[in-house]
Design a protein that fits this description.
The complex is a heterodimer of chains A (340) and B (521).
Chain A (H helix, E strand, L loop, with lengths): L13 H10 L3 H19 L6 H26 L7 H17 L4 H25 L4 H19 L4 E3 L5 H8 L1 E2 L2 E2 H19 L1 H11 L1 H6 L4 H27 L1 E3 L7 H11 L11 H21 L3 H22 L4 H5 L3
Antiparallel strand pairs in A: 1-4, 2-3
Chain B lengths: L20 E12 L2 E12 L3 E5 L6 H8 L7 E6 L2 E3 L4 H6 L2 E4 L11 H6 L9 H14 L15 H14 L4 E5 L7 H16 L3 E5 L3 H7 L2 E6 L2 E7 L5 H9 L7 H10 L10 E10 L3 E9 L3 E6 L5 H9 L9 E6 L2 E3 L4 H6 L2 E4 L3 H4 L7 H10 L11 H14 L16 H13 L5 E5 L10 H13 L3 E6 L2 H7 L2 E6 L2 E7 L5 H8 L2
Parallel strand pairs in B: 3-8, 3-9, 6-7, 7-8, 13-18, 13-19, 16-17, 17-18
Antiparallel strand pairs in B: 1-2, 1-4, 4-5, 9-10, 11-12, 11-14, 14-15, 19-20
Helix pairs in contact in B: 9-16, 9-17, 13-14, 13-15
The chains are: A mainly alpha (340), B alpha/beta (521).
Amino acid sequence: MALDASAGGESKSVGSMLVQLLRKPSQEQIVLLLVLALLVIFSISLPGFSTLTNLLNLVRSISILGILGLGMGLIVISRGIDLSMVSIMAAAWSIPLNQMEAGLPIGWAILLSVFIAVLIGAINGIVIAFVEAPPLFVTLAASFVIYGVAFWIAPAWVVYAPKNAPVLLYPGQGLLFGIPMPIIVFLVAATVMHLFLSRTSVGRFVYGQGDNPEAARLAGIPLRPLIVLEYAIVALLAWLAGLVWIGTTGSMQMSITQGTMVFDVILVVVLGGISLIGGRGSVLSVVVGCMLIGTLLNAFTIMDVNSEVQNIIRGMVLLAAILLDNWLHPRDEETARQGD
Amino acid sequence: MSEVLSTPVANVTSASAAKEPVLRVVGGSKIYGGVHAIEDIDFDLYAGEVHALVGENGAGKSTLSKAIAGAIKLSAGEYYVDGKLANFDKPGDALAAGICMVYQETSLVPTMSAAQNIELGNEKLITSFRTLNIQAQQLLQSLNFHIDPATPVALLGTAKRQMVEIARAVYHNARIIIFDEPTASLTPEEIVHFFNLVRDLRNRGVAIIYISHALEESLQISDRITVLRDGRLVITAKTPEMTREKLVRHMVGRDIKQTHYARAAEAARGGTARRTRGAKVLTVENVTMGMVVKNMSFSVYAGEVVGIAGLIGSGRTEIAKIIFGALKRNLINGGTIKLRGKPVRYRVPKQAIDAGIAYITEDRKLNGFFETMVVDDNVYIGKLATKTGWRFLLSKLTRNKLASLWVERLKISTLQRSARIVELSGGNQQKVVVAKSLVQDPSIIIFDEPTRGVDVGTIPEIHAQIRRLAEEGKAVVVISSYLPEVLSISDRILVARLGRIVAEFDAASATEDKVMYAAIH
């Protein structure tokens, strides 16, 4: 697949990409085409859709989802999953913000938030790597514990960011060259993640682990440290998403841990073609997944579609993505192995 | 061949009374990737007989029995059940025709009771547990099995699970039962009991195909024996006419001079003097792991190829994985492994790789290669996983140079460099897996079944590489079930049996008969 980072596709020409596309399109390509089609349709049919302000709005609205999606994408590529991302995001910031109200200097608060996030991520990783417990349950359990402990230490549903801390608010509110900061943060994070996954040996190991963990182990890849690192990176991205969140809303709400946000994150990841069987997909998958969801949500807002219908469509899109994934990557072990 | 009229099998009560075969395979062939797994097999089975299938690993026993059970489709040839042409598309069809295979690893649902398992796949819409248990109880009693039908299968021992499995076959009105290595995990008493059961089934008119490595068992229990070798049927004979010696001769009786192995070996050994072996690099002393590896001891020297022959389950692969640190849990009960005189024990493969040991897996699809990656990346990731080859940023130049080097050295089909590895032939896949390990620059290389599922043309190429490694002064271990392979490439042959090394031959004195004799229990 031409757009597979794992296949070293960056050297392929546009022509060979087209040939690939016609033969068997990758999920990213299908979703990308769908996004482009929707953009064209909405630009023509919806007044006010194709304005610069609206498009910037569109991208800004998906930035947080996108940053979380980058982390989730990494972990799903490695054949794991992290359901505690949103809890980490909330906990890593609610505690320092709470301490700031009590007079903690801003520098220390930021350090504390990084420390909390990476600590939780590392603990997740250590339990998964060394106890060999399934990531689904470890991170699900972690999300409850994190929420409980955070609420215990900082007992408030909403913790407001102090008004006199522009550094804290800038990544969510600021503008750089007229572009909203959340978009820039997302793009920078996406670029770094893309380079990490496609240009470094550790990124290659992540793909190897997701493709075939046992083969990776036999090849001498140190799986356990790798897993701990992966969950720490995921937690760090949750931290970054939290930073943008604080800027856009001026506060951190513990209530988001009780919502379905983590499933939205999984939705954009799976939608873009990061297969749940691991080893497949790239940062581009997250980007196109976010673009599709963002475009749809933005159009719904303009069309004033009520939230019930939005939820129905969101569910159908997820189901369609999973069916597409199944079709592109047959999961049945018998058929997969009888290739010859 | 004549069309045979169907006979109600239930009326037949003994082997001698059966005249028409209940099952007949005519010209059965199965081709995997261009290689015949079985070729032109004519096989028949009568009601009320026990028909043993014997042969080396890879002789085609499993392929034949799977074809009969409908698990795979024959590439050519047909089979007749009760004289009628049968066409099984899926195992369910064979089951409906009364053919049932009892697998080595039992296929029961552990959390369900024995009674539920017996009924599995045949449930009525509504069943009361009481009725179910009573029915199962009656069935089990009629078979003389002492099992409480309400017990969950997880609580039953291996022998009793097998009984449940057999009861299920009887419940489904199986008229042909295929046993694949049924006694592998049974104790001697349980085997006696099992044999009584097989005889009982036979007396009820059931036709039984009995697959076993243990020749004595086959001789003891069967009415007729068929020997397979290299996918071909060698002989079918009445059991009283056979002896252990005759069986072994039929099993290995290929004319070794005519095999491509022998030719390659002769060419390689031809003018050149025999390699001189170097220092002792690896010593295994009394290593024990559960019931699988028992007091295994051997040494490997630099510059030699050591072949380890033995049947599946003889502990060959397990000892290799112990040395390599590939077993998930540290289960070694005792013994020491010494690398150049120093005792070592690796917990993860990475440590072994850093110490210069490579293990090339027996199942490349399961854990040999990365299917989403192209050839070059598969090779390069091997290098990246080593201490010396690791670097944070990937280097396209290094990757291409390494891949080109190994593609050329191993003659990997270069047309397919940009193809993903799953799209290559079995032989090329194996070469990539070999390259992925050799790129790590090991000094001890353990090949596990290096030519399994590899096309015939590629086998000599892989063998040449193995010899070349030894000539470069590396210590090479080759584990193989295929005797001609072991005989043709080894300087020294070790035979594993039931977790021990039971015999050692040098290349000059080893013959297939001798090795087979030592390997079979």
